[in-house]
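Figure 6 in text form: structure in, sequence out.
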């Protein structure tokens, strides 16, 4: 019986079945060379010329043709439909860092589901890579090198408090909540430091900060690497 857990010593790229920009896979794979597909995201990987290291999901959107092209030992079906394919990956894979493409920019309900999954798995560092922005769950202490003036939005998925340095509008002394005060459209003065008293804070920064975010979330684990060979 196949194990439903895969462990990677280096960062991995996740590809979903949502909107995928022309350079999304190449950009992510340059920093996170492992490749995992969420169900139908395998089709996008194959179309771009990449063979996934693993395909995880309920396989309701994986075409028969694409499934036949993937070695059986790389297929990890999880039949239950109580969770999203993104959630199935997050609970089945361990890696120093995940860069997830194809999860933003399409359906709003899918994006909200992805945000929910991020905060439900606070122990796994994962960055959602969108056309213009990055979204990730803040660790208890975050040190992020940003360009002065970069937009930093903080969106709480639950009620929490925290402290910050390097933000134009500090969050010290504020209670953030999804049905109360949120922290969108803040700005970096340069290096940003954020501490939270509870998990549940999403950080949204420009896509141009991808290298800085990967260094902050997985120090020492990310270095530019050759992209995997195309299938």
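Output sequence:
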């Amino acid at each position: 019986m196949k194990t439903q857990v895969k462990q990677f010593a280096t960062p991995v790229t996740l590809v979903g079945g949502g909107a995928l920009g022309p350079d999304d896979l190449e950009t992510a794979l340059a920093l996170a060379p492992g490749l995992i597909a969420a169900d139908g995201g395998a089709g996008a990987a194959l179309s771009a010329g990449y063979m996934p290291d693993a395909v995880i999901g309920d396989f309701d959107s994986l075409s028969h043709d694409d499934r036949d092209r993937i070695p059986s030992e790389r297929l990890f079906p999880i039949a239950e439909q109580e969770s999203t394919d993104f959630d199935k990956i997050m609970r089945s894979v361990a890696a120093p860092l995940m860069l997830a493409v194809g999860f933003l920019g399409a359906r709003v309900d899918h994006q909200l589901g992805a945000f929910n999954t991020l905060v439900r798995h606070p122990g796994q560092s994962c960055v959602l890579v969108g056309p213009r922005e990055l979204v990730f769950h803040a660790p208890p202490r975050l040190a992020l090198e940003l360009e002065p003036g970069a937009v930093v939005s903080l969106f709480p998925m639950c009620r929490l408090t925290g402290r910050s340095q390097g933000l134009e509008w500090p969050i010290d002394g504020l209670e953030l909540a999804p049905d109360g005060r949120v922290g969108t459209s803040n700005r970096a003065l340069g290096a940003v430091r954020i501490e939270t008293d509870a998990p549940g804070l999403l950080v949204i920064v420009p896509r141009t900060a991808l290298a800085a975010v990967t260094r902050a979330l997985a120090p020492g684990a990310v270095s530019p690497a050759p992209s995997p060979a195309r299938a």
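Caption detail: Residues 132-218 form a domain with the Rossmann fold fold (CATH 3.40.50.10240).
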